[in-house]
UniProtKB/TrEMBL annotation:
<protein>
    <recommendedName>
        <fullName>MucB/RseB N-terminal domain-containing protein</fullName>
    </recommendedName>
</protein>
<feature type="signal peptide">
    <location>
        <begin position="1"/>
        <end position="21"/>
    </location>
</feature>
<keyword id="KW-0732">Signal</keyword>
<feature type="region of interest" description="Disordered">
    <location>
        <begin position="25"/>
        <end position="49"/>
    </location>
</feature>
Length: 289
């Protein structure tokens, strides 16, 4: 009887030990599984963080490459189409007739950078049913002429401090975007026959979209979104060309202005006032119609 009792005691102890061993094994497996899950989660988070950092570095490189290309540009031609319209989703008071494309215009833009860093530009604004408007700018004056008129206007440019070679308005914008906006590479898209990088810059209220040609980093399209302003502008570059030789007379509008045309000198502020009055008159005429 004593031996049987001892046998039961030993058997019970073995059962307890086995049970404890199984519990310890299960606990070890649980701890190991938890550690594995934590490691996987950590690795995933690290991969996502690294991927996000790589994406930002990639998109930042794209924008900086566009800035460098613009800074090194000696001459260029761009055929642009600008579309302006109203977004009814932003303002419920906009009627169905007012929504959509309000105006479309072609803009032919010519740029030449001189050896001293000064820049000459010529712009031709073409709107269907209206005379072509020509503007030629250099570092000192802006010459403005409308097709068919017998007078042109020469306006003194605003004084700009610093070396003209260091002045790149587009690059200044991109620097502000990189510093103050969330920058995202949206993807690669075919736009106007060019393979482009689609980059978005998101601010507090607005989102700006740019499409850069992958070969030259030329801006092929620009679009704006704004939570408060329903006015939308899209600028498409239909075609462009770099490194062109221009004759100096081309930037004096000698090929389009009559030889006997009168050129009126205008003060900058006076000219701006006249331009604003013309815009107001046009809006009033449109409202009357």
């Amino acid at each position: 009887m004593k031996k049987f009792t001892q046998f039961l005691a030993i058997s019970s102890l073995m059962v307890v030990m086995v049970a404890c061993g199984e519990d310890n094994g299960n606990n070890d497996d649980t701890v190991e599984a938890e550690e594995t899950d934590e490691q996987v989660e950590t690795e995933v988070n690290n991969d996502e963080t690294e991927e996000a950092e790589n994406d930002f570095l990639a998109v930042e490189d794209i924008v900086k490459a566009a800035m460098e290309a613009e800074a090194n540009l000696q001459s260029a031609f761009r055929h642009n189409v600008m579309t302006m319209g109203i977004d009814a989703d932003v303002d419920e008071n906009i009627t169905e007739e007012e929504e959509g494309v309000a105006q479309e215009e072609e803009i032919l833009e010519y740029t030449y950078v001189h050896e001293d860093g000064s820049v000459s530009t010529r712009t031709e604004r073409i709107v269907e049913g209206q005379p072509t408007e020509y503007t030629a700018d250099d570092s000192e004056y802006s010459l403005q002429y409308t097709e068919g008129e017998d007078i042109a206007y020469r306006v003194e440019m605003f004084d700009v401090e610093g070396d003209p070679a260091d002045i790149h308005p587009m690059n200044n914008q991109f620097e502000q975007y990189l510093e103050n906006y969330d920058v995202v590479l949206e993807g690669e898209e075919e736009v106007n026959g060019y393979t482009t990088y689609h980059v978005s810059f998101t601010g507090e209220e607005e989102v700006l979209h740019y499409w850069f040609d992958q070969e030259t980093y030329e801006v092929i399209r620009m679009e704006n979104e704004d939570e408060q302003n329903p006015f939308r502008i899209t600028l498409d570059v239909i075609e462009y060309e770099h490194n062109i030789d221009y004759d100096e007379a081309f930037f004096l509008l000698e090929d389009v202005m009559p030889e006997d045309i009168d050129i009126e000198e205008r003060d900058t502020e006076e000219h701006l006032d006249e331009e604003m009055n013309d815009i107001i008159d046009e809006l009033e005429e449109e409202n009357e119609e």
